Amino acid sequence: MSTNDHQHSIDVNAPVRVAYNQWTQFEDFPKFMGGVKEVRQITDDTVHWKVDIGGVTREFDTVITEQSPDQRVAWKTVDGPDHAGVVTFHKLDDDTTRVTLQMDYDPQGFLENVADKVGFVSGQLESDMERFKEFIEDRSVSTGAWRGTIDNN
What we know:
Blueprint: E1 4-12, H1 16-23, E2 36-43, E3 46-53, E4 56-68, E5 72-77, E6 83-93, E7 96-105, H2 109-117, H3 120-139, E8 150-151
Antiparallel strand pairs: 1-7, 2-3, 3-4, 4-5, 4-8, 5-6, 6-7
């Protein structure tokens, strides 16, 4: 896999538990992630995605490889385009959390490679993180929570 690494951090005005709980609500991702069209939680550790990146629509499944409440969620694809990532949550104070998203992926085909090279993917992820911040700060509570632990490494 020839991957491209993207990393973005954002400080959100929400306690770490609230930020983490919201991130575990994968089916809400289309509400704040521009390229995500649909997400379905199949099992506790399997998620089906439909995304549109640079005009290219893809569907694939991911498996959550690690999930530790209030700390991190890591995943990798099990089919479709190769990508993996991790999001971590760092308590800055009682009401502020730093959320860091790191994603590695292998662009497929000409359009995806061009979109990545011109910064579209990185810009999309940065915008998604800004929208996550707005989403959680506007609500001040998460839409749900899954507090289980997963270790599929």
